Amino acid sequence: MRLWCIFLLPLLCQLAGVRSEDYSDVTVIVRGSETIASTSGEFVCATIDWWPPEKCNYDQCPWGRASVLNLDLTNPLLAKAIQAFSPLRIRVGGSLQDQVLYGTPNLGLPCDPFTKVSSGLFEFSQGCITLERWDDINDLFLNTGAVVTFGLNALQGRHQIRKGVWGGPWNSSNAREFIEYTASKNYPIDSWEFGNELSGSGVGASVAAEQYGKDLVVLQTIVNELYGDSSKPLVVAPGGFYDQKWFAQLLEASGPNVLNAVTHHIYNLGAGEPFLDIMLALLLEKILFLCLCIQGGTQLCLTSILVR
C-alpha cells in the first residue's frame, strides 16, 4: 500500500500545483428539444447458444448443459435470472445456427442433435431442434417475459464454392414451416435474425452481399404472409462483423422496407484466448484501496474495484 503512495504522490503534487488562471471559462449549450438516438428498455441481452458439450477450445470443454438443446429449462434459478433483468432480450443463436434444422413435419430427415465431424463447418454436423423442445423453450420465455430474437439458418440450400465462401439462393422451406408453426402458437418472437457472422469475409463461412440481400427480401415476404396484419416480428441481419462495403451492398440489394434493423458483432475483449482469461482473472482478484495525500492536508481515499 505504501508503494502506491510513493508512486502517486509526485503526480498528485504536480497536479495540485496547476494554477487556476491557466483555465478559462466556457459555455456549453445543450439543445434538448430533439432526440438524436435512444436506447430501448431491453438493452441488456444474453445469448443462448447451440454449442454441444463436445465443443472444446484451448483444452477446455466448458459448454456442458448450456445450449438450446440441453439447457435445464426447469431450473428456478434460470427463470429468476431472466426476470431479474426484465426486460431481458434473449438471442437464440450463435456459430452453429447456420447448421440448425427445424423438426417440422416436412423436414424429411431425422431430427438428430449435433455430432462431432471433422469435415463439418466448425467441425460439427448439422443439428436439429424438435418442435417439442421449441415449445418448452417458449414456455420459459412466456413465463419470464423475455424479449426473443431468434437466429435463423441462412446457409440452408446453399453450396460451398470454395473454402469459406458459399453461394446459391437460400432454401427457405424449412424456416418458413418453422416460422409458420411459431406464429400459429402465438409465441412472442420480437425479431427473426438472418444468419450468424456470414458478412464480409465471414467466420467459417461467408455469403455475397447481393445474394444475402435477395434472401432477406424472401424472409420479409414470409414474415408478412404468415403474420398478416398482426404484430409482426422485425427482420434483422446480418449478425456479423462490420464490413462497410459488404453492408452497403446488402442494403442496396435488399432495398427499402425489408431490413428493419442492422445487427453486427463486436468482441471488445477478443475471442477468449487463455492469456486474456488469466489476466482478467488476476484483475478480478485485485481490489485496490489507494489513499492519496492532497496538498493542504486533506486526505482523499479512492477505492478502485477492478472487475471483469
SSE string? HEHEEEHEEEHEEHEHEHEE
Total count of helical runs of at least 4 residues: 7
How many discrete structural domains?
2
Spatial gap, N to C terminus: 22 Å
The CATH fourth-level homologous superfamily of the largest domain: Glycosidases
- Overall 3D form: globular
Percent of residues in helices: 25-40%
Largest sheet: 6 strands, parallel
Mean pLDDT level: 85
**CATH architecture annotation of the largest domain:** Alpha-Beta Barrel
Question: Regions with pLDDT < 50 over 5+ consecutive residues?
Answer: 1-18, 287-308
CATH class of the largest domain: Alpha Beta
What fraction of the residues are assigned to beta strands by DSSP? 15-25%
- Computed over alpha carbons, the radius of gyration is 25 Å
What is the count of β-strands? Answer: 13
Enumerate the strands of the largest sheet in spatial order, edge to edge or round the barrel: 1-2-5-8-10-11
CATH topology of the largest domain: TIM Barrel
* Class from helix and strand fractions: alpha/beta
Topology:
Layout: H1 2-16, E1 45-48, H2 76-84, E2 89-92, E3 100-103, E4 127-130, H3 131-144, E5 147-152, E6 159-162, E7 165-167, H4 173-184, E8 189-194, E9 206-207, H5 209-227, E10 234-240, H6 244-254, E11 261-264, H7 274-285, E12 287-293, E13 299-305
Parallel strand pairs: 1-2, 2-5, 3-4, 5-8, 7-9, 8-10, 10-11
Antiparallel strand pairs: 6-7, 12-13
Protein name: Heparanase-like protein 1
Organism: Zea mays (Maize)
Family: Belongs to the glycosyl hydrolase 79 family.
